[in-house]
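Today's session is about reading a structure prediction critically. Students often jump straight to the picture, but the first step is always the sequence itself: look for stretches that repeat, for charged clusters, for runs of hydrophobic residues. Only then move on to the predicted structure, which in these notes is written as discrete structure tokens rather than atom positions. Here is the chain we will use throughout the hour.
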Amino acid sequence: MRTRSTLALVALGALAGLAGSGCAGGSSQRSALAAGTPSAAYETPTAEAGGASYAGPGEAAQPAPDRPGLGTEFGENVYSRVTEAPFERAVSDPFATVAVHYNDADGVQAQADYRGGGLAPISASTPYGGITIAVTDEAGNTLQGFASAGRTYVVGEAGRRYNLRISNQTAGRFEVVASVDGLDVIDGKAASPGKRGYILAPNSTLTIDGFRTSDDSVAAFRFAAVRDSYAARTGDDRNVGVIGFAFFAERGSRWTTDELARRESADPFPGRYATPP
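Below is the predicted structure for this chain, in token form.
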């Protein structure tokens, strides 16, 4: 099923050309909702906001105990301008979803020891290739991690800023909906593939550097203790430690992932004898 024609947000600096990757302080393209532009990308945490609470039967709610490891906080304001451009999804469901898990060094090393892997700069990719994803530091260096049993783990450090770098090595244009800790990077609310995202131009690199707060700025992604994460401060830290990406092909694209998959699975001997056309 095809989606209706909609607008998409275009980053003017985070969306780089053939040779480069986007950088912090740039701009990008995102897609707008079918009914209009999304609301502001954030819900400002207040000083009174805290983590989730819990209570047993007949007990008053108590602050939830601190969780170990890392989440992502609502960081400082960073210039990152967006504009809107038309984008119509070929189908309503993403052709690929990718998850990248992150934690502090101890947490990731424990996972590596358990699964039997070594740490090295790590990236992920979509099925059939063509699009790669990396979590980078401010300087653009890919963070270390490891991959095992189809899962990708990245090492973060509390207080350090990070970016999401998405590189498209194909001639197709795609829309990418991204989430951090279960929150949409554009509106800061519960993430869903049904929301609109950023446009990934052909043969280009897109850098997403924070939760969008306006057409001109984002709140930088910074690793932090779970209790200080944006998710915890807005009420739900259940999904901290995971970054998600959902990819959509554009309607009318010649080499969609569906078409590539059909060619990959073509049967050289589907029948026995020739029949009249």
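Discussion point for the tutorial: The chain has one domain: 6-32+67-81+92-263.
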